[in-house]
Structure prediction request, 195 residues.
Amino acid sequence: MSDLAADPDLIRIGNCSGFYGDRLSAVREMLEGGDLDVLTGDYLAELTMLILGRDMMKDASLGYAKTFVRQMEDCLGLALDRNVQIVVNAGGLNPAGLAAKLRELADTLGLVVNIAHVEGDNITARAAELNLGTPLAANAYLGAWGIVECLNAGADVVVTGRVTDASVIVGPAAAHFGWGRTDYDQLAGASSPGT
Prediction:
């Protein structure tokens, strides 16, 4: 984290993406634009899940926001240099695949980075049990606690699949301030910027 982390009463969170295909330059702009502790990104919408599902049908190693990989090619080193953690839902249908791709990228760039992923949102295998028919993909929204666990374990980068919009903000805030699941007022306050 940046020097701001020295103040336990403060966390600065910036956002670089509101949808899959948002400006590629936004990651660099945010990292160079001011002091941050965490940079977040929201890459997923319902249509995006369909696009990622079709990608996975062609290549099972895909299913994540490929543009995020391009952004990290340019900016992963910069984020590490500035001690900015990255938390994004760019993992789409394959958070483990994106995490593996980012580890390969880090190795190629000669960077030492702790990359974690959150999964559990993909319920496609349970479609019949849940009477969903035969969907291309079926996902449940997860909350922030998987992100909290990853950050508390020392992750520099956390990639998730489907999480609530606010989770990419609530997770870092809860980890930073040590909030628990019953700190309702604090969690509600952190939820408002993420909606």
